[in-house]
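= Tokenised fold =
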Amino acid sequence: MTSKSLHFYFDFISPYAYFAWRKLPYLAKKYNCTIKLHPVVFGKLLDKWGQLGPAEIEPKRLWLYQYCLRYAAINKFKYNPPKEHPFNPLAALRMSLKEVSGVYQASVIDTIFKAGWSQGKNIGHINTLIAILKKKSIDIKYLKKKIKDPIVKNLLVKETNVAIQKGVFGVPSIIIDDNLFWGNDQIEHIELLLADMDPLDKQKLKELLERPRGIDRKVFKKL
């Protein structure tokens, strides 16, 4: 079996990204995949595609909290979200770039995710990030210096722009070959693809995409 690359697009601001992250090692091991990690700015994806974040819609925010608590209970892990949400994820995302964290990338990402979503840490604060990563024997002074570097800031912008070019519209997104999966509830579908049992009817998909639009939402705004 040829090894596939599993491209994971995430932002620490999303609990769904954390939930998906928890499943990645299982997928990679079972299907001999190489995981490629891509921190991106969720807010920029929302701006690009004209969307609001889940926490910005009050009823959806309530639903999100209920879903997360149920999901954690069903999957038997501790769920204790950041005390401040939404928060500024930029420092954490920059630390998570391969060009910054290097061989520690996966460890940095795992540590930040767990601290934020299972331990209730304020991972939008640089001092909190430094404190939690210091325990991992990572060069904290180096990370703290790099995240202020204009080149590193640009790298995160580039990662986000490349993701947009690939059609990424939300987090978490997982791309395998040309197949994009969005959300932590797509693991079953991803497994079918990796097992060469994908039930997707591509001809039917093509036909559906070619169907004409009957009306646009802007029409209702005039009523």
